[in-house]
Design brief:
Strand content: 5-15%
Structural class: alpha/beta
Helix content: 40-55%
Oligomer: single chain
Radius of gyration: 19 Å
Largest sheet: 6 strands, parallel
CATH class: Alpha Beta
CATH superfamily: NAD(P)-binding Rossmann-like Domain
Number of strands: 6
Order of helices and strands: HEHEHEHEHHEHEH
CATH architecture: 3-Layer(aba) Sandwich
Distance between the termini: 26 Å
CATH topology: Rossmann fold
Number of helices: 8
Strand order of the largest sheet: 3-2-1-4-5-6
Length: 286
């Protein structure tokens, strides 16, 4: 059997992406489906929310705050849910601490109260490292003002081997990166099991954002790699649990897009495509 070269495979993937992005009109494949997207205020979560809305979905945007300041200007960008509305879609924002069980229960309930059901749940939140550093310092000094999101990368502040890594940092990473996914899978799935089947027999779809580092690891990022590895296997197990109920559970493991804070700028020259991927690369996966 002939194995395609790496260059040929990359060309194939690039062609697939370009065909997807060349669509001038939405196919409305998600017409009137209800999607809950965590981390929807920025990055991958925002891109997913906007793409789903373009395909006709109703979007509940969940995050710590609706607006995230840009890096190039003092002004904040238009909130994701407001942008969806400006484009003619249906969306609203729910402030959510994804590591808190009661907050997650309220999130799913809010979606049901507003739209009547939950068809898709996407765990795509990412906390920026500057904010994480403030939280880590507060936690380290015993201050109980804790705000979490669904994915953090504390080692971005400085990779450390396991024998030098602070235990508090590991605990915080597992709380945010792993517990939040567990809660999302649990409560979104419970709601989906209560719902009628779609015409194709399915009840719902749960998508977890993992990482390539959850599959291969990387020196100096023991907490992040461990947490994302847990997400990968949690997804496999949840998929088996929900399969009899016709609920699909999948994970996407981005490479240098979501994990770019863990890499130095010098590494970009070593990338096969000579660039980091962007949020839209994951949105067009089919």
């Amino acid at each position: 059997m002939l194995v395609p070269s790496a260059h040929a495979r990359i060309s194939q993937l690039f062609a697939i992406k370009m065909r997807a992005q060349s669509r001038s009109l939405s196919t409305l494949r998600l017409q009137d489906r209800v999607a809950v997207v965590t981390g929807a205020s920025s990055g991958l979560g925002r891109a997913i929310a906007l793409r789903y809305a373009a395909e006709g979905a109703c979007i509940l945007c969940a995050d710590l705050q609706p607006n995230i300041a840009t890096k190039v200007a003092e002004n904040t960008v238009t909130a994701t849910h407001e942008l969806v509305r400006e484009r003619g879609g249906r969306s609203f924002f729910a402030k959510t601490d994804v590591s808190d069980e009661e907050s997650m229960k309220k999130l799913i309930l809010a979606a049901v109260q507003e739209f009547g059901r939950v068809d898709m749940y996407v765990c795509a939140a990412l906390m920026n490292t500057a904010f994480l550093y403030q939280i880590f310092l507060l936690t380290k000094h015993g201050i109980s003002s804790m705000v979490n999101n669904a994915a953090i990368a504390p080692e971005a502040l400085g990779p450390l081997p396991i024998y030098e890594s602070p235990t508090e940092m590991f605990d915080l990473t597992m709380l945010v990166n792993t517990r939040s996914v567990y809660l999302g899978c649990k409560y979104a799935g419970i709601q989906m099991m209560k719902q009628d089947h779609h015409s194709n027999g399915d009840r719902g779809w749960i998508i977890n954002i993992a990482s390539i580092l959850g599959l291969v690891g990387k020196a100096g990022v023991i907490a992040y790699s461990s947490a994302k590895g847990a997400v990968v296997n949690m997804t496999r197990t949840a998929a088996l649990d929900y399969a009899p109920h016709r609920i699909h559970v999948n994970a996407i493991a981005p490479g240098s897009e979501s994990s770019r804070v863990l890499f130095s700028n010098r590494m970009q020259a070593k990338l096969t495509c000579n660039r980091y991927s962007n949020s839209n690369d994951c949105c067009y996966l089919e």
